[in-house]
Amino acid sequence: MANKIKDAAKKFLLLGQCVPTVKQNATKIRVKRLELDENLLMYFKKDDFYYCYDPNKMCKTGDIVLIKALPQKMTKLITHAVEEVVYPFGDVTDPVTGKKVAKERYREDVDRQSELYGKLDSGFDYKKAPPRGWQEGKKDFTSKPTYTRFHVFDENDPYSI
């Protein structure tokens, strides 16, 4: 019974987060699930990892994406394909209202409060902020190829995981 449920769940759309991977032709997606422990009758967190076909390199590390099972496996590992990027990393959107969020408050509420009480000099302006990806190659290394670190050296390499 449990295998049938797992097989059926893999055929539907899944929502997950993109994590760094060593594979060059695929992206690695972490899907969070709750698994029932039959002895304790409690649910525990469990992460499932899927390698997804992403030819256009739509998703970057940290993005929340929607994935769908392929009709046939492409390779032994690649079983799903990326449908769309639902929420890009760093640009948090409330899923119920669709409004942008800054910490625990809506951005429009922060703007309204700054109009009422005066804008602080140290306040961050989201309207003037450049889009994600403008620091690629300077401080953002998510587009660089990653590799697995097998040895520990004195210098820290930002491209290894």
From TrEMBL:
This is Mitochondrial ribosomal protein S17. It comes from the Eukaryota. The lineage of its organism: Eukaryota, Metazoa, Ecdysozoa, Arthropoda, Hexapoda. It comes from Pieris macdunnoughi. Pfam families: Ribosomal_S17. GO terms for biological process: mitochondrial translation. The keyword Iron does not apply. Gene3D superfamilies: Nucleic acid-binding proteins (2.40.50.140). One of its GO terms (cellular component) is mitochondrial small ribosomal subunit. GO terms for molecular function: structural constituent of ribosome.
